[in-house]
Amino acid sequence: MPDASKLLQQMNDRSREVFRLVVESYLASGDPVGSRTLTRSLNEKVSAATIRNVMQDLEYLGLLDSPHVSAGRVPTQLGLRMFVDGLLEIGDLAEDDRQKIESTVSEGAPDVQSVLDRVGAALSGVTHSASLVLTPKHEAALKHIEFVALNPTRALVVLVFSDGHVENRLFTPPPGQTPSSMREAANFLNALIDGRTLSEARGLIQREIAARRQELDSLAAVMVESGLAAWETQGDDTSRLIVRGRANLLSGGDHADELERIRTLFDDLERKRDIAAFLDLTEQGDGVRIFIGSENKLFSLSGSSLVVSPYMNADRKIIGAVGVIGPTRLNYGRIVPIVDYTAQLLGRMVADRSER
After folding, report:
1. Of 16, 145, 180, 232, which sees the most CB atoms within 10 A?
2. Domain at 4-86: CATH code
3. What would the pLDDT profile of 299-340 be if each residue is shown by its tens digit?
4. Mind listing the pLDDT tens digit for each residue in 62-98?
């Protein structure tokens, strides 16, 4: 694909102005833009024939496309990328949008997950698009661990964190486990975990098992390792992907093929197991990033755009991401400051709650 920034530099003022007007009109209406429409918008007085020639040149460069003969032009993916990178004017965050987003955080909520659910719904409502929120992994210090036998083949490990958060995880206990071996395993773990996060405790516990295996009853040792296996398979990524506003995208589809692409996108999201890959979209650092169409494989089939930003904890570590997904004709100038502010707000909220 040609370099969009180089193409922009090679264009003269008239071509750049025609291109900007085509994209802005398309983003506002979703309709192809004709030369006669542009004659009324250009600062200089030029004929429709002259504008058609300019548009033909832009089409040759791969920046515009003609969906139908004599039906005007629409920007291509390359054209949208060039517009976003070089010509997009980011507006200020509207006070009404700010208040709607802030209200979801200021309203009392029992935990971070509830706040993030509300933020996702609010973001979808404000932008009239679908919203995505990747929730952070739970990194509070552990306070207590308990094993509960459910039946001979299933057990529960209960993790109690210092901030009051509780997680229950199912696993398969070793054959022949007894109540006493489960208590012994829990006592061994509780003596080690106090004040440590799950990731910190995991490595320490494995080292202690190797060093003190003779002190542990063999069945209790297997119980500990079985519990660790539950953490390894589920604990490395306890984050969730919150998706809100599916109806916004479906209602915006004008054609059957567009609706089918959108359904494919949501099916992919709902089936997606490695949701941490969503966070990789922001791996190049903080700030808002825009992905258009096939620039990201997750959204390539739906022809959608994603505006996404990471949010960070007090240590400036990326712990989650928030984004808006919609058609490629998103109002980027309005959406970018909304996503940026929401990410900043979430980062402050998570940092504040972790200090309590």
Report:
1. 145
2. 1.10.10.10
3. 655 567 889 888 887 777 777 888 888 888 889 999 999 999
4. 999 987 766 788 999 899 999 999 899 888 899 999 9
Residue at 283: amino acid letter = E
Instruction: Mark residue 72 as left, alpha or beta (left: phi above 0; alpha: psi -120 to 50; beta: remaining).
Output: left
Reference 87, options 344, 332, 276, 354; nearest CA is: 332
Q: What is the DSSP secondary-structure string of 291-354? A: EEGGGSTTTTTTTEEEEEEEEE-TTS-EEEEEEEEEETT--HHHHHHHHHHHHHHHHHHHHHHH
- Cα–Cα distance measured from residue 204 to residue 226, given in angstroms and rounded to the nearest whole number: 16
Q: Which fold has domain 95-136+239-355?
A: Beta-Lactamase (3.30.450)
Domain 142-237 has CATH 3.30.390.10: yes
Residue 168: left (phi > 0), alpha (psi -120 to 50), or beta?
A: beta
The 10s digit of each residue's pLDDT in 122-155 is 998 999 888 888 876 666 778 888 988 888 888 8
CB 143 within 8 A of CB 160: yes
